[in-house]
Amino acid sequence: MRYEARLLSQLSKRWHSRQLPLRICFWDGHMADLGPQPCVQVRLKAPQAVRHFLSPNLDRLGCAYVEGEIDIEGPLPAVMSIAEQLSGDTPRRRSSTMLKYFVRRHTRQRDARAIQYHYDVSNDFYALWLDRNMVYSCAYFKTGEEDIHRAQEQKLDHICRKLRLRPGEQFLDIGCGWGGLIRWAAKHYGVKAVGVTLSRQQYAYARARVETEGLAGQVEVRLQDYRDIPGENVFDKVASVGMFEHVGLKNLPVYFHSIQRLLKEGGLVLNHGITTRDPAQQDGGPNTDSFIHQYVFPDGELPHVSRAALEMEQQHLEVQDVECLRPHYAQTLMHWVTRLEAQREQAIAMVGEKRYRIWRIYMAGCAHAFERGWVSIHQLLASKQTQPGLAPCPWTREYQYGSAPADGAQLAQPRWPDGSVAPRHREAIQPEQLAG
Q1: 130 lies in a domain?
Q2: Strand 317-324 vs strand 375-384: parallel, antiparallel, or unpaired?
Q3: CATH code of the domain containing 68
Q4: Judgement on whether residues 26 and 120 belong to the same structural domain of the protein
Q5: Counted domains in the chain
Q6: Is residue 25 among the annotated active site residues?
Q7: Dihedral (CA of 200, 147, 284, 363) sign
Q8: Cα distances (angstroms) measured from residue 322 to each of 73, 88, 318, 393
Q9: Tens of pLDDT along 78-92?
Q10: DSSP SS3 for 346
Q11: 417 within 8 A of 335, measured Cβ to Cβ
Q12: Exactly one of 160, 176, 366, 393 is catalytic; which is it?
């Protein structure tokens, strides 16, 4: 009982004034509740696992779960809320974060390896929990009640409407994933589309879908780095969705210059990507940097939305519209992780227990991070303006939405697919809120 006593003493000192609905199960069968009616259970599988709880943070707890040192049972909203409370919910500014950003080298080879690590897991694995169009980016909800299939189609259409796509236009999607946007734009807006990706499995899947849907003469998919796309003034419209997080902060000028080079004068570009909430880019909430870079997105870096806008403007891409989609990504991730859990056995058979644990805890953690405001996501619409003149955009945003929302519309509040509401702010979760 030496390890158990030490852990319980440590946790009691830290949380004597707050009761957590958490049960800790030790490797020898002993159990201890840190509050009444525990709704989350953590099982320590060996004495070594105690070290993760003596000075816990989200990074250490996530690593312990992925490596199989602990098991976690309970509703994921409660799991993430309790993990945050155990870790301490005061964001820490870390000067080392900026150092890590600027020592990463985003070469073509290194970027290709990073993309392939994350995306070349298995097309069948992603198909278990993505929507029918295989869209792996933030969906777009109009009511919050849509299923993931409808919400992703609304997102694809929202992008096409913002770009004001027209039949016969040349359209480029940088980081096209499994090809959902280029196929949607070709079928519904009549454009000639080119999509580029560094993932071999995405490339093969996208090409097959293009052939199957009869779009071979209208849509081209390339296995290509954005820096290697040839030509100048080639495309009328450009989109980049969930891509610039992989570019690297130092490479943002190169990235946006490539877009400017490829875009025709007056053409429109939509950049859709995750952003940090800290303007100094030194803090993303409680420490999760090591976990993300080790297990999920090697070399990923998040700019602040102001940095993204500045870099666009410096490349003569005049920002016309900025939209924050933070509630939408919290909701999207809730759908994804719920769908993944429902296919647990198949997922493990495809990619193994460890990979399943990585994606489960990563997506649950990201849903919590977006809901809590540690990170955000923005769509920036810009036009190429290297010459004097006005951007070819309407006077108002009505063309994007069709009609204004009804008076008294409710504020966006992410919900899990079972209807439970994501916890807000720093309020402790009550067990009765999470029953079932």
Answers
A1: yes
A2: antiparallel
A3: 3.30.1050
A4: no
A5: 2
A6: no
A7: negative
A8: 39, 33, 11, 14
A9: 999 989 888 864 444
A10: helix
A11: yes
A12: 366
Secondary structure percentages of the chain, helix, strand, coil, to 5: 45, 15, 35
The neighbouring-strand residues paired with 324 are: 378
Q: What is the pTM of this model?
A: 0.85
Residue 45 amino acid letter: K
DSSP structure class, residue 146? -
For 365-384, give the DSSP string.
Answer: HHHHHHHHTSEEEEEEEEEE
Amino acid (1-letter code) at residue 188: H
Domain membership of residue 166 (yes or no) is yes
Residues 127 and 37 in one domain: no
Residue 192 and residue 47 in one domain: no
Residue 135's domain comprises 99-388
CATH of the domain at 281: 3.40.50.150
Q: Are residues 22 and 149 in the same domain?
A: no
Q: Cα Rg for the chain, rounded, in angstroms?
A: 23
Phi/psi zone of residue 373: left (φ > 0), alpha (ψ -120 to 50 degrees), beta? left
What is the 8-class DSSP label of residue 156?
H
- Cα 314 to Cα 388: distance, rounded to the nearest angstrom: 15
pLDDT tens by residue, 275-332: 998 887 554 444 455 777 777 867 678 999 999 999 999 999 999 999 999 999 999 9
Same domain, 67 and 172: no
Tokens, residue 378: 């923005």
Positive or negative torsion for Cα 334, 335, 336, 338: positive
Query: E strands of 26-168, at which residues?
Result: 31-33, 40-44, 70-73
Name the helix (H) or strand (E) containing 241: strand 235-241
Query: What are phi and psi for residue 318, nearest 5 degrees?
Result: -80, 115
Domain-located, residue 405: no
Evaluate whether residue 23 is within a structural domain. Answer: yes
